[in-house]
Amino acid sequence: MYLGQLSEQLESINYFQQGVNLMMAERQAMPVDTTKGSEFLALSSKISSALCSMADIYLTDCCFEPNAESQCETYLAQAMQIEPVTPEVYQTLASVRLSQQRVDEAKAALAQGLALWLGSDSTEEDSLTPDYETRLSLVKLLLETAMFDEAFTVLNGLVDENDQVPDTLYLFGWANYISAEDMAPDAPNAEALRKELLENAREALNACVKMWHVTESTDEPMLQHSQELLQNITQIIGPEVEQEEPEGGEIEYEDDEDEEMN
């Protein structure tokens, strides 16, 4: 499995397949034990994750292979059969459906995946809550499908865990920005809410630019887009009013989840 992560394209698929075959053989030799925290379920989850990784490779690096779409479907079907209650399967399924322009099905998959872990205790050892990076990718899918309320719910959780990650700050700002753009002009208090969203976006994007330099990030496109959005915000609502930085120097985020998209 480690070689699969280090390799590229079809070579990576071959290594992943070898790992899946070994784990499948080990699983078949085990007694079926579906109790929470069992070795059987843990191994099933690893196999499912590997199959999702293989589908993702065909979705990205090997997308021009003639059998790419069918392979994605095959791996996802196998992953869902082995471990049907893992969020990763539904997140990968949503990516595939978006690539096929089947947006409603992508939304349904994202909703199913969220229902498996959202609101659960992420501190439990066998929690279904995806890791930080996986949730960042999830936010991108939620924004792409205009599932703004869900995106803000996940983002607020990420910010609570760590508000010093440039990618999280960028997505927080981008989410507020596109929510402001998407707001209907005739919505109640539309102008005031739109301005508030843009101010939230500016705060997060300013923090993103700052942390981009602090962490020595190499994601130049993210920095450039953040700066472009900040310029756009200034053109729309005017320059930022200088305010005294909160004690401790940390950004304080308000939970606007109930206000952002009504």
Task: Indicate the CATH class of the largest domain.
Answer: Mainly Alpha
Poorly predicted runs of 5 or more residues:
1-7, 246-250, 257-262
CATH topological fold name of the largest domain: Serine Threonine Protein Phosphatase 5, Tetratricopeptide repeat
> What's the helical proportion of residues?
55-70%
Number of helices: 12
Mean pLDDT: 88
Structural class: mainly alpha
The largest sheet is: none
Tell me, what's the shape? elongated
Number of domains: 2
Radius of gyration: 21 Å
The number of distinct β-strands equals: 0
Notes on the structure:
The chain is an all-alpha fold and 262 residues long. It folds into 2 domains: 1-120, Alpha Horseshoe (Serine Threonine Protein Phosphatase 5, Tetratricopeptide repeat), CATH 1.25.40.10; 131-262, Serine Threonine Protein Phosphatase 5, Tetratricopeptide repeat, CATH 1.25.40. 69% of the residues lie in helices and 0% in strands. It has 12 helices and no strands. The protein has helices at 2-6, 9-28, 39-59, 68-82, 87-99, 103-117, 132-144, 148-161, 166-182, 190-214, 220-237, 257-260. Residues 1-7, 246-250 and 257-262 have low confidence and may be disordered.
